[in-house]
Design brief:
The complex is a heterodimer of chains A (110) and B (115). By secondary structure, chain A is mainly β. Chain A contains no helices and eleven strands. The chains are: A mainly beta (110), B mainly beta (115).
């Protein structure tokens, strides 16, 4: 059973636009929700993370919105740039285990 | 963020040989490290959880005799792919969690190609 469901699988956005990636989870025991950015041939890099006691966290152009009641969280990339083109993974953590979404390949067109 | 170093970044070996991949936490102590395998265009598949000073915990379906994991110190975990075969060719990534905190940091990954 997939613990974290991520959508869309791929996303094309024009430069300057907003990229939105969504994730949903079932296990209410999850207490940490990070987003990772991965470039081809590289390991994932932690982008931004949130805990369930807040509904939104913003770091620069990246914002996580968290809806505890709906068990959903999303990543918003404002003013998307071609350099943001990468694969993004959401994750959810419970104690010592991390569960990853299936990934979203983002392509920002110049 | 914390730095996790993985070595080698790529390795080519002959079928039947063993390959060791190292994962080091450079600026923090990690009581727990994780090993993942990633197939092209797919998500990360957790292989095992490595705990310092104790045996690794393997995920269902992962052969513990093929993928030997050792976590000898708070900053080093190793994955040894024994008697490698072409189907073991993959991208292996380690990660480490800062003790007492939530963040999980990844190494750069190791591309294994078995001929």
């Amino acid at each position: 059973q997939q613990q974290v469901k991520q959508s869309p699988q791929s996303l094309i956005v024009q430069k300057g636009g907003i990229s939105i990636i969504n994730c949903a989870y079932e296990n209410t025991a999850f207490d940490y929700f990070p987003w990772y950015q991965q470039f081809p041939g590289k390991g994932p890099a932690l982008l931004i993370a949130i805990r369930p006691d807040v509904s939104e966290k913003k770091e620069g152009r990246f914002t996580i919105s968290f809806n505890k009641s709906a068990k959903q969280f999303s990543l918003h990339i404002m003013d998307s740039q071609p350099g943001d083109s990468a694969t993004y993974f959401c994750a959810a953590s419970n104690f010592n285990k991390f569960y990853f979404g299936s990934g979203t390949k983002l392509n920002v067109k110049p | 963020g914390a730095v996790v170093s993985q070595h080698p970044s790529w390795v080519i070996c002959k079928s039947g040989t063993s390959v060791k991949i190292e994962c080091r936490s450079l600026d923090f102590q990690a009581t727990t490290m994780f090993w993942y395998r990633q197939f092209p265009k797919q998500s990360l598949m957790l292989m095992a959880t490595s705990n310092e000073g104790s045996k690794a915990t393997y995920e269902q379906g992962v052969e513990k005799d093929k993928f030997l994991i050792n976590h000898a110190s708070l900053t080093l975990s190793t994955l040894t792919v024994t008697s490698a075969h072409p189907e073991d060719s993959s991208f292996y990534i380690c990660s480490a969690r800062v003790s007492g905190a939530g963040e999980l940091f990844f190494g750069e990954g190791s591309r294994l190609t078995v001929l």
